[in-house]
Amino acid sequence: MNLKINPERLWANLMETALIGGTQKGGIRRLSLTDEDKRVRDWFKQACESLGCTVSIDELGNMFARRPGRDNTLPPICIGSHLDTQPTGGKFDGVLGVLAGLEILHTLHAAGYETNAPVEVVNWTNEEGARFSPAMLASGAFAGVFDRDFVLSRKDRDGLSFHDELRRIGYAGSIPVQARSISGMFELHIEQGPVLEAENIDIGIVTGVQGMRWYEIAITGVESHAGSTPMWFRKDALLGAAKAVELVREVGVRHGPLAVSTVGVMDVRPNSPNVIPGEVFITIDLRHPDDAVLNCMERELFGALTTALDAISLTFVWERVWHSPAVHFDSHLNEYVRRAADRLGLSRRDIISGAGHDAAYISRVAPTTMIFVPCRDGISHNELEDLTFEQCAAGAAVLLETVLAFDESLEPLQVER
Amino acid sequence: MNLKINPERLWANLMETALIGGTQKGGIRRLSLTDEDKRVRDWFKQACESLGCTVSIDELGNMFARRPGRDNTLPPICIGSHLDTQPTGGKFDGVLGVLAGLEILHTLHAAGYETNAPVEVVNWTNEEGARFSPAMLASGAFAGVFDRDFVLSRKDRDGLSFHDELRRIGYAGSIPVQARSISGMFELHIEQGPVLEAENIDIGIVTGVQGMRWYEIAITGVESHAGSTPMWFRKDALLGAAKAVELVREVGVRHGPLAVSTVGVMDVRPNSPNVIPGEVFITIDLRHPDDAVLNCMERELFGALTTALDAISLTFVWERVWHSPAVHFDSHLNEYVRRAADRLGLSRRDIISGAGHDAAYISRVAPTTMIFVPCRDGISHNELEDLTFEQCAAGAAVLLETVLAFDESLEPLQVER
Fold it and tell me: Is B233 close to A193, i.e. CB distance below 8 A?
């Protein structure tokens, strides 16, 4: 094998599609099922078809660009991620995984190389969850986690439904959304964290995804006048929320280095300069690769919060609104990625993904893994999200090397090699 | 003198007007220059005119219901407050001061009593500042603090202007807004704090208003992914804001019992469950009756905040966006209130107002004081705001007693008694 990806072409495609929904600060605003999403889908479809691939679309808009192999009865090798972004997202989160897949199609096509199994490059609908909640709706439905009708009924903040918007942009396909047999699923992604960059490592071998739990907490005090209510008389819900923020941080630090804990949302009522807040709503996000540790973090946090808020005469209610168990990727596929990195002379380390990904759901129904590349300053979900040309090239090269080696291992059933 | 207010009539008027903009929880939503404001103004105008008073309206909608005295060249005795409320306000904040004035007009009218000086009951426009910022716009303009055109140009959150809304409800008068000579200005108000109730005192002799300063603070960290950013790598702006909330509380407690300090507004960006907040905006409200102590509080707070935020790699900018120096009411008028309370056998104590009031501005251009009555649990700016019938009656009785005694002291110039 002497196939090589063309890193300039990959980079050029990333920059070209980044203009679809491109923002002034160099990021992308390309929410799922918007006009911008339609434009990038059209671009992707046309690019794949020009390489002789067939693009099929399922009921939830998931796109599968198929390049036939020697034995088309073999389950396909899937490569993919998502083309939607956060409201002020970057140019690489998700897009890299799809366009690196496209680059592999280009490379195979240019070389006239025939794989044993068919190769399919996938664009999963609505990974970010920024428009239709929750995240990873369509890969989740593919894996049987969500019901099709549940997904179609999701509404955005303006009350527009997934169903109507999917039809509006012309991407409501006819193929039922359900898991088909897949030989292996590979998702290349930026790390979205600082570890690889800090350690100067080229490739992350993603062995799993952290367990994640989301909570909603409403803290209640007494709304009263900021001028005429003495300090000793106050029941300030925002003071309680401040203590919650500190306790959430403490529980993450205590269970470090693998634990992370975040208060991302805080809504203060009535949110007026001269009124002591009577009610504060917050969200808490706890993650750890071990569900048993997550149980422990949850217990410690809400125990400490009860004590702290009791002490300042506040009450609160909390609810776990979402959770995703820890995911363990296919160790066999991990090993293919390790060897590919080694063959290419790239440094590597095992890593756990702190973020959710389509691959986490797909791992429930097919052998799956991910490949991480560093990103600048660990920043993502941000218009400043960045990685170097070399990092990008290294990731795509490892993806190609992995896919080819994995494909070699698949036995054609009906065709003599 | 044997005049007595009719506490049932006062209470009935409070309950009747509370239906104008009344909320399900028993409060009032009557924002300045809305349809509800027009309705309560119409009601007040009609009530005063039925007692033979002339209601004049200035360019900013301030209403002056005048009952002539023996000597109409004497500057009037003014009694008043405001009829607008917070978005979820109570039935007494402001309204009590106007309707107690109306009750005095009723009492004088029923008795055919002729005061030396004319008596004017005033409704100041937009005291709350909840619709058009800042608060006390129209009494401020009367006192020369704000320019007329500045007030007229203020816009609400929907972009509607004070000028247009004032015309729309038909309360744009022709009288120039400017201080006229006033013999004395009296404002009866609920305490909006817990002190009188906690000490079981009937009447607060308000000797002044706390100095107040408002600040806006923007704390900047780095927005990043909640799952893949290790705890040690975070620059969490919300953690900084939480520390600010605690430092603000500490500075108030340290300078107690007279100091109060509040974070009332917190806006978190991007406010998404799985994104570490990159930017948080907060407001800080500091109050103390001594401006020198306020200087000290300001220095201590922002010094401590700089140290705390530096330590967690956050930056911030702060600005003092508004301040109101400490106000000292007329000691001569205070003495009239003390004697009135004593004559009526009511308990009293001197008190400093923690809240701003129209009277604070009017005190710049006329002898002014306020009378406080307790309110339940110290709660105001809240639909649960309440006081007892007896507390309400006591306050209005002291107001009448004070006004009559003060009026006695005024020398008619042109008329033989």
Answer: yes
